[in-house]
Amino acid sequence: MYIYYIKSLKTILLNPFDKNKDIGNLDSEEEITVLSANTLTKEDTEYIEKESFSQIDNSVNLWIQEKRYYLRLFAATFAFFIMYFFLSLVIRDPIPLLDEMLGSAIFAILAWNFFAKRDKKSAIANKKKLEIKRHVSTSNNIEIDLIKKLENYLYEINSLDNLDIADALTLVEGSLEDIDLTENDKIYFDELLKLLKIELFKKTTFKSLYSKVIKVRENGEKDEALSSRLIEFGKSNKFDLLLLALLVKLENK
Q1: Does 45 reside within a domain?
Q2: Does the first or last residue of the chain, that is N or C, have fewer Cβ atoms within 10 Å of its Cβ?
Q3: What Å distances lie between residue 203 and 5, 182, 216, 240, 244, CA to CA?
Q4: Which residues form the domain of 201?
Q5: What's the structural domain count of the chain?
Q6: Structural domain includes residue 202
Q7: Which of 162, 163, 160, 247 lies closest to 201, judged by CA?
Q8: Residues 116, 149: one domain?
Q9: How far apart are the first and last CA of the chain?
Q10: Within this chain, do residues 112 and 205 fall inside the same structural domain, yes or no?
């Protein structure tokens, strides 16, 4: 299992832990390797552990809630009916049924939340978190050319202005340099591309613009309106525009 650590202009950490509800199915004995362009410093290691641990906690919480979904559903349903009969038989109210339904629904929601919080703190969840975190803490580090090429590419296109990048991506004018990959690079490429898309597509705007750029390039027809949108997109955060260019270049590798 790999963690990809890209440190260029800004840090990008790609790993299989983020919002992964299938994390509980990971082999507890599986080793983890951090792939980077250079040897990790103490600060790099601390950053990777901090971010990964937070993601592991969140993902294991998702996993345990998925695993115990039907038990929580049964408990909440049982709580609903218990409260409904209690309110119906014990407490008299001026509006029959309505108050019972509302009170029972609130009680069921409270029961659901109670068991959800309890599941997150359960022994099974805590054990799974500790197992995966231990592998992150004892992970080894390998320097690979693929990460170095991506970091260098981001530095290179950062010297261009937004107009040049936007026009090149939308075939209006000019072009961006390609990223040359070797057979050794391709060993890690598919998983890196998959995780990079997951990370970048968290932003709806990014995913939408990416899809439009890919369509323009597939059709082979320039789109000046889209170029204008990309320029505006890059105004608020040029690094996002650089990442968009990087992802478009990696797509056809």
Answers
A1: no
A2: C
A3: 20, 31, 20, 10, 12
A4: 145-253
A5: 2
A6: yes
A7: 247
A8: no
A9: 22
A10: no
Which amino acid is located at 4 in the chain?
A: Y
- Quick one: which of 55, 48, 68, 56 has its CA closest to 128? 56
* Helical (H) or strand (E) element with 45: helix 42-67
Would residue 178 count as lying in a domain?
yes
Q: Per-residue confidence of the chain (253 residues) as pLDDT tens digits? A: 899 999 988 999 998 888 777 787 776 677 889 999 999 999 999 999 999 999 999 888 888 888 888 888 888 888 888 887 777 776 665 556 666 677 788 888 888 888 888 888 888 888 888 888 988 999 999 999 999 999 999 999 999 999 999 999 999 998 898 898 998 998 999 999 999 999 999 888 999 999 999 999 999 889 999 999 999 999 988 999 999 999 999 987 6
Q: What is the pTM of this model?
A: 0.79
The answer to whether residue 171 is domain-embedded is yes
Whether residue 141 contacts residue 36, with contact meaning beta carbons closer than 8 Å, is answered with yes
